[in-house]
Amino acid sequence: MTDINEKINKIWDAVVSGSLDLAKNIIIAIIVFYIGKFAINFLLKVVKKVMLRRNVDETVSKFILNILKISLQVTLFIAIIGILGVKTSSIMGLIAATGFGVGMALSGTMQNFANGILLLVFHPYKVGDFIEVNNISGTVKAIQIFHTILVTTDNKVIYIPNGTLGTATMINYNQQVTRRIDWVIDIDYGEDFERVKAVIESIIASEPNMLKEPAPVVELNELSASSVKVLLRCWVATGNYWTLYYSVNRKIYEQFNQNNINFPYPQITVHTSK
């Protein structure tokens, strides 16, 4: 009977001791949870203020804050379950294995994602810039995490993966204060070049968007098989590029017609034997 009582007492002592330890661990876990929650919120506010002072792009800022928040919350969760006596090594291994598998499966997507972050941080271009990449040119409509959206001059909307933009050669025309425009105008062989030049110079004088320095150039560019090619070269402020381009095109057509300057058209000379 004594042995039975001793066993019962030992079991009871173990239950009481275990309950006390569990209660203590729960209390510690609750304290750690609230302290950790406060620390996470405080750290997020500090990081947000730092990014605001450094003018970090809003998209990048939100992304970094979300990633940081999730990482800290996962760390806090692992710490709490460790306090409660759960072995965390298996959980961390599972998280690592899952992350590795997802990374391998989404390697292309992750490349687009990584380049999207770099594009938003370093700003090689911004919304509204006119860029050219892989023979595709257009105005940047939006910069997203995985894609950059361009609108071409003929109003096509093109989604370019950021991974492509991160590795391809890109031209950002808006980073240039001025741009050069070349017109190569075909005229008939019988036309007087000096008269043609005078008409083009009158067009130059009528265009306020055409820069005076460097001075516009009008030269006889090439003697081709069926026409004489006249070059008009000028410089323009980047923002006025298309306005000037279309205006000069229209004026060349109108002024040449008014002055009876002929544009050549494809011709075939046929020799017949008698």
Description:
The protein folds into three domains: 2-105, Helix Hairpins, CATH 1.10.287; 124-174, SH3 type barrels (Roll); 177-258, Alpha-Beta Plaits (2-Layer Sandwich), CATH 3.30.70.100. Helix content is 54%, strand content 19%. It has seven helices and eight strands, in the order ααααββββαββαββα. It has a five-stranded antiparallel β-sheet. Strands 6-8-7 form a three-stranded antiparallel β-sheet. The chain is rod-shaped, with a radius of gyration of 36 Å.
**Count of discrete domains:** 3
Whole-number mean pLDDT: 80
**How far apart lie the N and C ends?**
141 Å
Enter the CATH topology name of the largest domain.
Helix Hairpins
Along the chain, the helix and strand elements come as HHHHEEEEHEEHEEH
Q: Output the radius of gyration.
A: 36 Å
Strand order of the largest sheet: 4-3-2-1-5
Q: What's the architecture of the largest domain in CATH terms?
A: Orthogonal Bundle
Total DSSP E strands: 8
Low-pLDDT regions: none
Helix fraction by DSSP (H/I, runs of at least 4): 40-55%
Structural class: alpha+beta
Key attributes of the depicted protein:
7 helices; 3 domains; 274 residues; 54% helix; alpha+beta; Alpha-Beta Plaits; Helix Hairpins; SH3 type barrels
